[in-house]
């Protein structure tokens, strides 16, 4: 019987293939492996190689997949994904597809950019908290830079409005994890107190809602709605500094909630004292609870975050690649996640393993920092450009004198400007061993002592790096 169901699944894939490009099909659908079909539950179980594929399919192709399953199986079939994260210990993750009906169905209390009304306030059980369930405390890795805010945040979630940490004001640079932390507080609070009205809102959306209420003459309804919230979480409040009317309206909401002992959580890229344009009466209220700074994560915390994400997503990335990303991502959690997602996408699309060479390429395109570390690709590109040869010729097995010279210069500069060991440099420049790199460096150093013209050539190449020798 399972063979028949496998044939139906193949029919489903055939329908999908007719409605997407060949590249799209090979990238996102071909890696899916049919496992079984539950007749009673009308559920198809498939295996996917990574959570990235599952999330991408659910975001962009859930309607197409539901339609093709219904056509093939002649029934409303649900789809369940399985990912094996550790074959030896038989560990796996499993997700059930949300389905297009859930995605497309309107939420009764989600009104987009329109202002909430008192009718919304009358239905507390239906309030959508607008929280991301993936941004919880379990995935908020603790380190020296966030230990205090994380500890306080967890305490607030367990006792909202009943601690001295009200309001809780979190500030820090972009990418340090502020949004994750305040979202985690909301998720934990909603888990422990399901009946509490918890709401996460960005400062920009709050302002749009307020502007909309003014236009429709429903400002009182807008204020009344927000005054019914038990735990109000507002992100990026620095965006209000040039909006005095929004700030005045928020003052009345803040004052009401604070007097009732409701929990208020605010996040900004700067401390209250630096919020120019905000009136003193509101600044004093922002500062009367606890102000906590989230610093950029240090290298060790970046490594811990990367390793945690790899375990969660079933990724296998060499330790040296993780170390390289942690040293390069400029202390930004957002950059760390972006680099990992890019590595995963490159690996899937080009069917290649994740190694240092791929990491260098991705970092170069994904992370913008002022003092970007020099990579092997950067060095090869400049050296080859100077001597008029191609990188393919340099990394080839050819012993032609011109290619050997460029190869030796590249290895010498790589050892000088990167922290890589000789063995890694050799692997990335044509798959040579460490002894070849050592010999090349020694050869270049000897020549520099006797050949002034060669010294000038090397200076010219190094100047193109915008670095001093």
Attribute tags:
469 residues, 5-stranded parallel sheet, 11% strand, 22 helices, alpha/beta, single chain, 54% helix, 4-stranded mixed sheet
Summed up:
The chain has 469 residues and is an alpha/beta fold. It has 22 helices and nine strands. A hairpin with a 4-residue loop joins strand 1 (33-38) and strand 2 (43-47).
Explain this structure.
By secondary structure, the chain is of the alpha/beta class. Helix content is 54%, strand content 11%. The protein has helices at 2-17, 22-29, 51-60, 62-73, 99-104, 118-121, 147-158, 178-192, 203-215, 219-226, 244-259, 280-286, 299-313, 319-328, 333-350, 356-366, 376-387, 391-395, 401-417, 422-428, 434-450, 452-464, and strands at 33-38, 43-47, 78-86, 91-96, 168-171, 198-202, 231-235, 263-268, 290-293. Strands 6-7-8-5-9 form a 5-stranded parallel sheet, with helices on both faces. Strand 7 (231-235), helix 11 (244-259) and strand 8 (263-268) form a beta-alpha-beta unit.
Sheet with most strands: 5 strands, parallel
Spans of 5+ residues with little confidence (pLDDT < 50)? Answer: 101-115, 117-125
Q: Specify the number of helices.
A: 22
Note the overall shape: flat
- Largest sheet: spatial strand order: 6-7-8-5-9
Strand content: 5-15%
Radius of gyration based on Cα positions: 28 Å
Helix content: 40-55%
Oligomer: single chain
Structural class by secondary-structure content? alpha/beta
The total of beta strands comes to 9
Mean pLDDT: 80
Measured distance between first and last alpha carbons: 71 Å
């Amino acid at each position: 019987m399972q063979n028949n169901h496998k044939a139906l699944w193949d029919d489903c894939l055939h329908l999908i293939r007719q409605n997407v490009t060949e590249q799209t099909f090979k990238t996102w659908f071909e890696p899916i492996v049919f496992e079984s079909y539950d007749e009673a539950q009308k559920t198809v179980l498939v295996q996917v190689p990574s959570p990235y594929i599952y999330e991408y399919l659910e975001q962009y192709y859930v309607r197409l997949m539901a339609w093709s399953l219904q056509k093939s199986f002649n029934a409303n079939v649900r789809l369940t994904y399985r990912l094996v994260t550790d074959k030896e210990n038989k560990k796996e993750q499993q997700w059930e597809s949300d389905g297009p009906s859930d995605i497309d169905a309107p939420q009764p209390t989600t009104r987009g950019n329109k202002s909430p009304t008192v009718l919304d306030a009358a239905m507390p059980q239906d309030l959508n908290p607008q929280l991301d369930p993936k941004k919880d405390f379990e995935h908020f890795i603790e380190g020296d830079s966030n230990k205090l805010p994380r500890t306080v945040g967890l305490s607030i979630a367990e006792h909202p409005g009943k601690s001295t940490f009200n309001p809780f004001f979190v500030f820090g640079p972009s990418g340090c994890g502020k949004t994750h932390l305040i979202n985690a507080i909301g998720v934990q609070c909603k888990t422990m107190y399901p009946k509490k009205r918890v709401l996460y809102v960005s400062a920009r959306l709050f302002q749009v809602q307020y502007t909309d209420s003014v236009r429709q003459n429903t400002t009182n309804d807008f204020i009344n709605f927000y005054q019914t919230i038990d735990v109000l979480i507002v992100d990026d409040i620095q965006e209000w500094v040039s909006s005095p009317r929004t700030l005045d309206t928020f003052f009345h909401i803040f004052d009401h909630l604070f007097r009732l002992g409701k929990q208020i959580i605010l996040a900004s890229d700067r401390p209250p004292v630096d919020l120019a344009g905000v009136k003193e009466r509101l600044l004093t209220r922002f500062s009367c609870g606890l102000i906590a700074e989230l610093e950029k994560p240090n290298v060790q915390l970046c490594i811990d975050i990367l390793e945690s994400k790899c375990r969660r997503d079933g990724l296998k990335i060499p330790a040296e690649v993780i170390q390289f990303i942690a040293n390069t991502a400029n202390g930004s959690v957002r950059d760390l996640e972006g680099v990992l997602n890019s590595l995963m996408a490159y690996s899937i699309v080009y069917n290649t393993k994740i190694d240092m060479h791929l990491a260098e390429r991705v970092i170069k395109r994904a992370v913008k920092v002022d003092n970007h570390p020099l990579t092997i690709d950067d060095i090869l590109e400049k050296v080859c450009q100077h001597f008029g040869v191609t990188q393919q010729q340099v990394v080839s097995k050819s012993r032609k004198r011109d290619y050997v010279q460029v190869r030796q210069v590249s290895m010498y500069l790589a050892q000088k400007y990167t922290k890589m060991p000789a063995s890694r440099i050799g692997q990335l420049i044509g798959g040579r061993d460490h002894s070849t790199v050592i010999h090349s460096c020694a050869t270049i150093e000897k020549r520099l002592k006797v050949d002034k013209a060669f010294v000038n050539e090397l200076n010219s190449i190094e100047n193109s790096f915008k670095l001093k020798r």
